[in-house]
């Protein structure tokens, strides 16, 4: 009985102490993404449609999912920066209703 108790104590101790020696890897902060987000969202909370990535557009704008956000970025890459907010109407999937829902959240700078 003593041998069994001693063996059990050794096994439990080794399991406990082996778990302590393993440190979880620390994630490094994503500075470039944070910098883009700060640049793409102005001080008033407006989203800069000329610098925001698809993820930010999807996150910050009403009625904009992954496909529409990617379409906005693709349009911008193909045609250059937006010169007016109304130019979003030229993006496939963006209509007047979506534009009006988000007009106060959009910026060009």
UniProtKB/TrEMBL annotation:
<keyword id="KW-0732">Signal</keyword>
<protein>
    <submittedName>
        <fullName>Competence protein ComEA</fullName>
    </submittedName>
</protein>
<feature type="signal peptide">
    <location>
        <begin position="1"/>
        <end position="23"/>
    </location>
</feature>
<dbReference type="InterPro" id="IPR004509">
    <property type="entry name" value="Competence_ComEA_HhH"/>
</dbReference>
<dbReference type="GO" id="GO:0015627">
    <property type="term" value="C:type II protein secretion system complex"/>
</dbReference>
<dbReference type="InterPro" id="IPR051675">
    <property type="entry name" value="Endo/Exo/Phosphatase_dom_1"/>
</dbReference>
<dbReference type="Pfam" id="PF12836">
    <property type="entry name" value="HHH_3"/>
</dbReference>
<dbReference type="GO" id="GO:0015628">
    <property type="term" value="P:protein secretion by the type II secretion system"/>
</dbReference>
<dbReference type="InterPro" id="IPR010994">
    <property type="entry name" value="RuvA_2-like"/>
</dbReference>
């Amino acid at each position: 009985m003593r041998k069994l108790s001693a063996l059990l104590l050794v096994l439990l101790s080794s399991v406990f102490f082996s778990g302590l020696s393993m440190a979880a890897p620390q994630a490094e902060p994503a500075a470039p993404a944070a910098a883009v987000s700060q640049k793409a969202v102005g001080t008033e909370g407006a989203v800069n449609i000329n610098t925001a990535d698809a993820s930010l557009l999807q996150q910050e704008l009403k009625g904009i999912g992954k496909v529409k956000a990617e379409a906005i970025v693709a349009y911008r890459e193909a045609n250059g920066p937006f010169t007016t907010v109304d130019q979003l109407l030229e993006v496939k999937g963006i209509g007047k209703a979506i534009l009006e829902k988000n007009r106060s959240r959009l910026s060009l700078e």
